Each structure stands twice: as C-alpha cells, then as structure tokens.
C-alpha cells in the first residue's frame, strides 16, 4: 500500500501561527490587594527620581545618645577603624593577636573562616593610660538601692507600718487556724473556787485545826511487842489522859517504853502517872514544855443528835478526823479487863462518828471544839468490842467522869469508886427489869441496909437500873459514904432501903 504524499512546506513561513495570549480575568479583591496603586501605570521604580533624590522631604533620625556614641563610635580622628583590629600593629586584623583556637585542630567543629577573632578592647581605659586610680563614689543607702531615691522617708515608714499590719493579720489568722485545726485540743477555761471559802469559824476544818495539836499518838513498845493508841493533852505541865488498855503493857512490863508523837512530828518520852482499870482510864506525863492543851467541855450538856468530832490515830494513822453525831447517852458498857484486870464498866456516850482501833484514848469534841468524851471502844458485827472495824457504833467515856478521875490520878496516882457490896446479874421478869443480887458481901453496905440474895435492884437514887452494868454505873455516880435510896423488888413486892455506899 502506498503512503500518501505530503504537500511541500514553505521554509520561510511558520507552520502554525502564535497562540493568542490568554489573559484570565483578575479577581477584583486580589487586584486591590496586590495591584499597583492608583495613578501608577508602570514599574514601582519610576517613583525614584534621577540622582537618587526625591522631591519628598528627608526625615533624619535623632542623634545617638552621647553614652552610646562614646561606647560604640570611632575614636576621635579615626576615619576607617576596624573593631577587630588589634590595639597595636600595621593594620592587619590578625597582626599581634593570639592564635585562633582552631590553630592546633583541637576544636574541629569551629569554622576557620569566621571573621571574628579574639583581641583586646578597642580603646584602653583612661585610668590605665594615666596610671591613676579612679576615685570611689559614695556608697548607696538601702532606699537608694531599692527605690533609686524616689521614695520619701515618710512614705518608707508608712510602708513599714503597712508591712507590720499585714504580718500581724497573718499571724492572727494562722493562730486561729491552728487553734481550730484539732477539735480535741484548745485553750481550757477552768473556774477555780476561792480557797478555804467553807472554812468558816466553827466548821469541822476549823475545829480540827484547833484540836489536833492537843491530840497525841501514843506508842508503847517492849521488845518485839507493842501497841498504838491516842491521848489528849489536858494540862500545860505535860499531863495527858488516855485509855488504860492503851498503856497496860507499860504497867505490866517495866522494860516497856512509852513515846508520845505530836502532830508536828515531835517525839518525846512519857511516863505513867496513874491508872483506873475499872473505868479504862489512865494519865501519863509527857516530857514537853508548854504544850497545846485542849479545852474541856461538859458532857452533861450533850443531847442525842448533837454533832461531835473524833480525833485520834486509828490503825496507826495519825491526825485522823471523823465526824458524826451523839447517837445515845448513858449507855452502860462492860468490857473484859486487860491482863487479868477487873472488868471495865462505864456510862458511855454512843456516837456514829467512825472509831477504830487506835482511836482509843483520843478526843471526842463538840461543835465548839471542847472535849466531851474520851474514845474508848466500838461495837462490831461480831458483837465483840475491839475486834474488826467500825460499823458506826462507838463509845466514849464522858468528859465529866474522865476529868474527875484524871484529877484524882494526878494527885494520888490511884482512884477509889463507890461500892454497894453485892454481885448481881441482869434479869428480865414479867413484873420488873433490873439487876438480881447473887450474893451479898458480909458486913458490906448492902448487908447493913438489909438487902438479901434474890432481891432485884431496879433503881439507885434517881436512876433506873435495867441490868447489872447499869447498877455499877449508877452506884459509881455517887461518892463513897453517901446515903442513897435503893429500890428493890422482893418476892414481887417493891421495897426502898437507904444504903450508905462504901468504897472498893
């Protein structure tokens, strides 16, 4: 198949005409942003006039500050000064300078072509040139350093006051936070009572303070045995009254020693003056000068219910004070004698003031602090006096009887009691209560008055007799030689006989 022939081309004419210019439309917003300003048709350099000058006024910058010009300007008279040029040399920048750091290839990362080199300062200090030391200026004060002399002293003081106030407020706030930080701790407000406000004259404390110096603790020792009791100073010469059973060891053993201990701790020796085993009383003399003595009251003025205070050394506890009332009066008490001595019988004061072993011989005082009794024995739940502890029933020898006997012991060393001359036992019959006569002493007061065995004595003088102990105390209430009417019951018939009391 033959190929088609192509028409011959004219080498002087182009094959295709030039393509027309494609001028796409310009967005008005882009033209406004990037186009020529209004009135400018050509290039922007047409705004410049020949010779580099413009008709617009030239705005010059203000001169540099003098300090900057002095620090960074060229020296006076120098037209072309390189700042890197050394201070001396021919003008070469590197002449006379130290070799660069990279000269020995010690730091290969540095650029050897860097134009900056290490050299000396561009200008020498003026002081170094002249060889003179620059004078030092005045030292700046704290306000000048902090505020540059712009604050007045008054304002500075006011600022200090404000700082103090802020610190005080901060301290108060911190104290409040610390105080309320723990609900279990804080500042306690305790109301204290006035000391001694209840120690009025006549109070128990006041009475105890006045009475205690006159009450002593008595210690009796003989070898490994001993006893402890109490006593009361009744005379400035050193006489003290106590119970016979407290010092009975000293009367039976010549080697026994008696020691009196006062409330201030003073210890001194004591001697037995006299004893009365039948009433359980004794008097000792303490080797002391001008002791505190107790005031003696009248036991006959007591009534049941009156307040009383017991002072002594119960169980060896010195200076013990207990309080109570008079439970009963004229309570006949009989106890077994000490070391084979006759039975003890006395007309007692009954009290509920706690009394224990060791209170024996101590003071029983009234509400004025006067002595009304000598504590002697107690009743226990076992029914035996002197055993166990107090159950609120104690007995004291009335002060009227005790002082009468003490005076006789001090003067004579012994005492005699009135006696009727009979042995009796307590009885209780349908028609009478009293003491039944078991036997009558031959030639005694009762035998001379006609009292016979089997008679029941119901009254001695003005006092009723309900038992044998009450017969004894009723007779001892009188003096020996005194004539006393005695009422007896014989075979159911009451009789009254006059008895002249004798002496034991």
What's the arrangement of secondary structure elements?
Layout: H1 28-34, H2 66-72, H3 126-130, H4 142-147, H5 153-179, H6 204-211, E1 215-222, E2 225-233, E3 239-242, H7 244-252, E4 257-261, E5 267-276, E6 281-286, E7 307-312, E8 320-335, E9 344-351, E10 363-365, E11 371-378, E12 394-398, H8 399-412, E13 418-419, E14 422-428, E15 433-440, H9 445-449, E16 456-460, E17 463-464, H10 468-476, E18 483-490, E19 493-500, E20 502-503
Antiparallel strand pairs: 1-2, 1-4, 2-3, 3-6, 4-5, 5-6, 7-8, 7-10, 8-9, 9-12, 10-11, 11-12, 13-20, 14-15, 15-16, 16-17, 16-18, 18-19
Structure notes:
There is one protein chain. The chain has 504 residues and is α+β, with helices and mostly antiparallel strands. Helices cover 19% and strands 26% of the residues. It is built from ten helices and 20 strands. A six-stranded antiparallel barrel has the order 1-2-3-6-5-4. A six-stranded antiparallel β-barrel has the order 7-8-9-12-11-10. Strand 14 and strand 15 form a beta hairpin. The chain is rod-shaped and about 195 Å long. It starts with 27 loop residues before the first helix and ends with a strand. The relative contact order is 0.07. The model has no long low-confidence stretch (mean pLDDT 80).
Short characterization:
This protein is an alpha+beta fold and 504 residues long. It has helices spanning 28-34, 66-72, 126-130, 142-147, 153-179, 204-211, 244-252, 399-412, 445-449, 468-476; strands at residues 215-222, 225-233, 239-242, 257-261, 267-276, 281-286, 307-312, 320-335, 344-351, 363-365, 371-378, 394-398, 418-419, 422-428, 433-440, 456-460, 463-464, 483-490, 493-500, 502-503.
């Amino acid at each position: 198949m033959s190929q088609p022939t192509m028409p011959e081309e004219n080498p002087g004419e182009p094959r295709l005409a030039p393509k027309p210019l494609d001028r796409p439309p310009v967005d008005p917003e882009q033209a406004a942003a990037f186009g020529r300003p209004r009135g400018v048709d050509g290039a922007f350099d047409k705004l410049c006039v020949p010779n580099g000058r413009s008709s617009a006024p030239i705005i010059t910058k203000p001169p540099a500050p003098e300090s900057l010009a002095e620090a960074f300007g060229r020296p006076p008279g120098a037209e072309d000064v390189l700042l890197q040029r050394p201070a001396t040399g021919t003008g070469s920048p590197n002449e006379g300078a130290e070799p660069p750091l990279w000269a020995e290839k010690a730091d290969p990362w540095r650029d050897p072509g860097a134009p900056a080199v290490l050299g000396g300062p561009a200008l020498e200090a003026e002081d170094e040139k002249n060889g003179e030391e620059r004078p030092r200026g005045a030292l700046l004060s704290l306000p000048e350093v902090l505020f540059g002399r712009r604050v007045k002293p008054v304002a500075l003081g006011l600022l200090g006051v404000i700082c103090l106030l802020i610190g005080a407020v901060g301290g108060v706030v911190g104290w409040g936070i610390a105080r309320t930080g723990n609900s279990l701790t804080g500042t306690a407000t305790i109301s204290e009572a006035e000391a001694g406000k209840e120690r009025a004259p006549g109070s128990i404390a006041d009475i105890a303070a006045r009475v205690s110096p006159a009450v002593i603790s008595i210690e009796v020792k003989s070898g490994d045995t001993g006893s402890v009791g109490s006593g009361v100073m009744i005379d400035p010469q050193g006489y003290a009254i106590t119970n016979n059973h407290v010092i009975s060891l000293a009367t039976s053993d010549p080697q026994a020693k008696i020691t009196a201990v006062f409330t201030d701790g003073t210890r001194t020796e004591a001697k037995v003056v006299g004893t009365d085993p039948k009433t359980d009383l004794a008097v000792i003399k303490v080797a002391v000068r001008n002791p505190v003595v107790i005031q003696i009251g009248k036991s006959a003025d007591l009534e049941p219910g009156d307040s009383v205070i017991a002072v002594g050394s119960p169980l060896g506890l010195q200076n013990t004070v207990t309080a109570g009332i008079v439970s009963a009066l004229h309570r006949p008490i009989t106890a077994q004698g000490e070391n084979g001595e006759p039975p003890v019988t006395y007309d007692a004061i009954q009290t509920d003031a706690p009394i224990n072993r060791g209170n024996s011989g101590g003071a029983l005082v009234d509400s004025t602090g006067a002595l009304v009794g000598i504590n002697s024995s107690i009743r226990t739940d076992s029914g035996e006096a002197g055993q166990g502890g107090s159950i609120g029933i104690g007995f004291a020898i009335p002060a009227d009887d005790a002082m009468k006997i003490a005076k006789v012991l001090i003067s004579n060393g012994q005492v005699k009691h009135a006696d009727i001359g009979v042995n009796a036992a307590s009885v209780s019959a349908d028609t009478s209560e009293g003491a039944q006569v078991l036997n009558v002493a031959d030639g005694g007061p009762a035998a001379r008055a006609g009292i016979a065995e089997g008679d029941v004595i119901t009254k001695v003088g003005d006092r009723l007799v309900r038992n044998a102990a009450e017969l004894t105390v009723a007779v001892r209430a009188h003096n020996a030689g005194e004539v006393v009417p005695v009422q007896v019951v014989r075979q159911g018939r009451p009789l009254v006989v006059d008895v002249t009391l004798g002496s034991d």
